[in-house]
Amino acid sequence: MKLYKFRSLEKIERIRDILFNSRFHLARWKELNDPMEGFLHYIIYDTELPYKERIRQFINEKNELKICSFSNTFHPILLWSHYANHHKGIAIEITVNPDHYSNLYKVKYGKNIPELNFDLSPSPIDVLKSKINHWAYEREYRVIDRYDTVTIEKITGIYFGLRVENEDKERIKLMVNSPVQFYETKIDFNKNKVLKKM
C-alpha cells in the first residue's frame, strides 16, 4: 500500500530526518489543525458503575496518545495547499505492508463526532481514528501511539509541489539515503487534481 506524507520545506531538519532515517514524528492530538479533534459524545446506561472514574481514565489515556498522519493519495489540490506550504513543499511516498503496523489505522469519517458507549469500555483510539466528513478528501491513515517517532520500512518516492524552486529540489535530492524516485507535478485543469508529470 502506498501512503503519502505532505511536508513544507520550512523545517528542513525534520525532512532530513525523514529522508535519511525513514523516521516520522508524531504530534499530540491537541496540536492538530482540526478543532474538533479528540471530542466525543458518550453514552452511559449503567449509572451504577463508577463511570466518572472510567471517563477520567479514558481522557488520561487519550491525552498520552500521539498521531502521525498520512494520506493514501497525492491528488487533492487542498492537501498540497494545507500541508505542503501552498504547493511549495513535497509529498513523501512510502510503501507499507499494513500487517506490519499494529498502530496504523484508516480514519473513519462520519456526519458527527464519534458517539461511544462507555458501558462497552471503548478505546481512546476509537476517537482518534474518527473525523467528521468535512475532512474526507484527505483519505487519511494514522499511526496512533505513545511514542514520539515511527520508522517506516520504505520511502519509494518524492513528489515536488508545483512551486518548489530548483535549488530546493537539488537540496532534497542530496538528503536521500536510498534509491528513491523523484516526480514533478502538474495540475489537471479538467479533473481539478494534482498529477505527476509523465
Pick out its properties.
198 residues, alpha+beta, five-stranded mixed sheet, four-stranded antiparallel sheet, 5 helices, 23% helix, 33% strand
Overview of the structural elements:
It is a single chain. The chain is an alpha+beta fold. It has a domain of 137 residues. 23% of the residues lie in helices and 33% in strands. The chain contains five helices and 15 strands. The strands form five sheets. Strands 1-6-13-14-15 form a five-stranded mixed beta sheet, with helices on one face. A four-stranded antiparallel beta sheet has the order 3-5-11-7, with no helix packed on it. The chain has a two-stranded antiparallel ribbon with strand order 2-12. The protein is elongated and about 65 Å long. The two termini are 22 Å apart. The model has no long low-confidence stretch (mean pLDDT 92).
Helix-strand pattern: EHEEEHEHEEEEHEEEEHEE
Q: In percent, how helical is the residue content?
A: 10-25%
Which structural class best describes the helix and strand composition? alpha+beta
Rg (C-alpha, Å): 19 Å
Average pLDDT works out at 92
**How many DSSP E strands?**
15
* Shape summary: elongated
Strand-residue proportion:
25-35%
Weakly predicted, low-confidence segments: none
Strand order of the largest sheet: 1-6-13-14-15
Give a nutshell description of this structure.
By secondary structure, this protein is α+β, with helices and mostly antiparallel strands.
Q: What is this structure's SSE topology?
A:
Blueprint: E1 2-7, H1 12-21, E2 23-25, E3 27-28, E4 41-43, H2 51-64, E5 66-71, H3 77-83, E6 90-95, E7 104-106, E8 108-110, E9 115-117, H4 124-128, E10 130-132, E11 140-145, E12 149-151, E13 155-160, H5 166-175, E14 181-188, E15 193-196
